[in-house]
Amino acid sequence: MKAVVYRGERDVRVEDVEDPTIDAPTDAIIRITTSAICGSDLHMYEGRTGAEPGIVFGHENMGIVEEVGDGVSDLKTGDRVVLPFNVACGFCRNCENNKTGFCLNVNEGFAGGAYGYVSMGPWRGGQAEYLKVPFADFNALRLPEGEEHEHDFAMLADIFPTGYHATELAGVGPGDTVAVYGAGPVGQMAAYSARLRGASEIYVVDKVEERLRLAEEHSGAIPVNFAEVDAPAFILDATDGGTDTGIDAVGYQAQKPDGEDEVPAMVLNNLVTSTRATGRLGVVGLYVPSDPGAPTEEAANGRLLFDIGTFFEKGLKMGTGQADVKAYNRQLRDLIIAGRAEPSFVVSKRVPLEDAPDAYARFDRREDGYTKVVLDPAA
């Protein structure tokens, strides 16, 4: 089959790889209808992780069940499904506590697994024609038949639940004020989720005007261009002392406004400044224990200059970590079906699988029209 294969820094290629097979009774094979390129993929694409050449990318996957193992009882051939990026067993201690992002059985020596991602286990990604799904009854979420809401449902694999998870970590409730740093796909979904949860004011911080316009149009957010204003100062002035909650949707590759220098803890520290005393922070931007391209030796080992003094003095609370997608995807699916949520507004481009190398390059450059790219293996 055809698949998107990582070959080195800023080098992905569409190559022939072996077809997936049923290796365990609980496996299923999915024919991919949509697989999205995620901002997290760019960390590997840019050489900012320990990803080895040969890995097949793709953790935002949906499609049609083609084959099931003898132990699969809830799925059948022809079912339309979306797959959480988390690979999980369903029966370990963490899975039983609905912490499927930290499964103890799918990635030896590590809590958590994912499709097509460095250090997240042996699971091949779905930017391909087919994908093997382990523990398929547990990991696949069934969808209505047909092609309706294809792009909406594709967002259930990662960014919609991850954005919602950010608001859960921050405890966003009705009437709260929220500052979302980062207006990429996850930041868009965090702002959108804050609106769904009843936030009264949402500030979105970025410097890409297209992204700021998107957040303003679909989430009712107040755009803050940090290349033009001091974002924490702007938010402090506008809120009379800071927002109730803050969300980091950027992570360790945060850059100064000029785009020349990285300051890995910049967003975390800006959140500490712009959130009111006793406020709450949700951090879903990626931070890693090892960064080959870090600006300092300390940052290369995941140790950042975080303003813990002010954080403590203000009595702030912070939740972190990747999203436990299964904690949210069923409810978010039903909001889509009911017409209450349309996360596909973030999708800017659908291209054939063979165009993935070009799409990666353009997304990496933050070109207009490449906010969120989905791949179509059948095109």
Write up what this structure looks like.
There is one protein chain. This protein is α/β, with parallel strands linked by helices and 379 residues long. It has helices at 39-45, 93-96, 136-139, 150-154, 159-170, 185-196, 209-219, 231-239, 266-274, 297-300, 308-313, 329-337, 356-364, and strands spanning 2-8, 11-16, 28-36, 60-68, 80-83, 130-133, 141-142, 177-181, 201-206, 222-225, 243-248, 275-283, 317-320, 349-352, 373-376. It is 27% helix and 22% strand. The strands form 3 sheets. Strands 3, 4, 5, 6, 7, 14 and 15 form a 7-stranded mixed β-sheet that branches. It is globular and about 60 Å long. The model has no long low-confidence stretch (mean pLDDT 97).
Short description:
By secondary structure, this protein is an alpha/beta fold.
> Helix fraction?
25-40%
Separation of the first and last Cα atoms:
14 Å
Largest sheet: 7 strands, mixed
| Total helical elements | 13
CATH superfamily of the largest domain: Medium-chain alcohol dehydrogenases, catalytic domain
**Unreliable parts:** none
Spell the H/E element sequence.
EEEHEEHEHEHHEHEHEHEHEHHEHEHE
The second-level CATH architecture of the largest domain is Alpha-Beta Complex
Per the CATH scheme, the topology name of the largest domain is: Quinone Oxidoreductase, Chain A, domain 1
Descriptive keywords:
globular, 379 residues, Rossmann fold, 13 helices, alpha/beta, Quinone Oxidoreductase, Chain A, domain 1, 27% helix, six-stranded parallel sheet, 15 strands, 2 domains
SSE map:
Layout lengths: L1 E7 L2 E6 L11 E9 L2 H7 L14 E9 L11 E4 L9 H4 L33 E4 L2 H4 L1 E2 L7 H5 L4 H12 L6 E5 L3 H12 L4 E6 L2 H11 L2 E4 L5 H9 L3 E6 L17 H9 E9 L13 H4 L7 H6 L3 E4 L8 H9 L11 E4 L3 H9 L8 E4 L3
Parallel strand pairs: 8-9, 8-11, 9-10, 11-12, 12-13, 14-15
Antiparallel strand pairs: 1-2, 3-4, 3-6, 3-15, 4-5, 5-7
